[in-house]
């Protein structure tokens, strides 16, 4: 048995052709993206300070395809691969564990995170930026209280 559009009513043919065209469009859009690891880049280390002291918790994100990482207790965020380019650095407070500690146990070290000023939460308003370049150390220290 052979299927052709001639056996369908005109409205069904239009719908089927539209669906085929949209499917082709979605497939072509999905095939255009390359994973970040295929773009040349480097490992990056970013230390966040506040008045010269490490910020011990938080989430650091780089604009665009830069990625993100959690700050460790020394205020360092390590990213394995960031494509070369310039990025705006945004900061968000750490997520608070929604489960309270068990009675009698010590609360976590980051029980009440200090929020960052709002300007650091958006790539449009943050004053922080880095440039990842080939052949450089790509280790950055940014102080949010300067």
Automatic annotation (TrEMBL):
<feature type="region of interest" description="Disordered">
    <location>
        <begin position="93"/>
        <end position="116"/>
    </location>
</feature>
<protein>
    <submittedName>
        <fullName>Uncharacterized protein</fullName>
    </submittedName>
</protein>
<feature type="compositionally biased region" description="Pro residues">
    <location>
        <begin position="95"/>
        <end position="104"/>
    </location>
</feature>
């Amino acid at each position: 048995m052979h299927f052709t559009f001639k056996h369908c009513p005109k409205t069904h043919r239009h719908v089927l052709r539209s669906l085929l065209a949209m499917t082709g469009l979605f497939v072509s859009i999905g095939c255009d993206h390359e994973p970040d690891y295929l773009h040349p880049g480097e490992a990056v280390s970013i230390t966040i300070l506040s008045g010269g002291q490490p910020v011990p918790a938080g989430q650091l994100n780089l604009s665009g395809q830069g990625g993100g990482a959690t700050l460790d207790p020394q205020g360092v965020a390590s990213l394995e691969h960031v494509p070369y380019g310039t990025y705006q650095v945004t900061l968000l407070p750490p997520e608070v564990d929604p489960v309270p500690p068990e009675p009698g146990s010590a609360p976590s070290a980051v029980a009440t995170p200090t929020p960052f000023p709002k300007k650091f939460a958006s790539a449009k308003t943050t004053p922080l930026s880095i440039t990842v370049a080939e052949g450089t150390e790509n280790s950055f220290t940014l102080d949010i209280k300067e």
